[in-house]
Write a structure and sequence with these properties.
This protein is of the alpha+beta class. The chain has a domain of about 100 residues: 2,3-Dihydroxybiphenyl 1,2-Dioxygenase, domain 1 (Roll). The protein is built from two helices and ten strands.
């Protein structure tokens, strides 16, 4: 697992240059208004969003897992502790196919637990399948 830090930036090119030099690694994926770094040392998934909020602010935080089972286990633990999650969804979002769940912190900061399953050309979030609380699957659900 590694932590994810998703930042809003004013100038994507400037931010890519800065973080590439800071961490000694370039981005793994760059799209219009978006860059994604998979940094080995320290273990960090750094995501940059241009035009999504005030530059220098946190877009969201996350935990990238290695398996979908870890996402399901995290969602179960979060729910069992009384935190409200989005449930486990299969999504296309941020140019990736993912299994994910979300929870909001008390200050409104969003946390994502996810595993990336593949690349996609879809930026906007589309839920392609979701699990019900009893583990059954719902398919064909979409949201923005």
């Amino acid at each position: 697992m590694r932590l994810q830090l998703a930042l809003n930036v004013d100038d994507l090119d400037e931010a890519i240059d800065f973080y590439s030099r800071m961490f000694g690694a370039g981005p793994d994926k760059v799209r219009d208004g978006y860059a994604n770094f998979a940094i080995a040392d320290p273990p960090l998934k750094l995501v940059l969003f241009a035009g999504s909020g005030p530059g220098g602010s946190i877009n969201h935080l996350g935990v990238e897992t290695e398996t979908a089972g870890e996402v399901v286990a995290a969602e179960s633990r979060l729910s069992d502790s009384g935190l409200e999650t989005t449930g486990v969804d299969e999504t296309l979002c941020c140019y990736a196919e993912k299994t994910e769940t979300w929870v909001d912190g008390p200050d409104g900061l969003r946390w994502e637990w996810y595993v990336k399953k593949g690349d996609a050309e879809q930026f906007e979030n589309v839920v392609v399948g979701a699990q019900t609380s009893d583990g059954g699957e719902i398919t064909g659900v979409c949201c923005s």
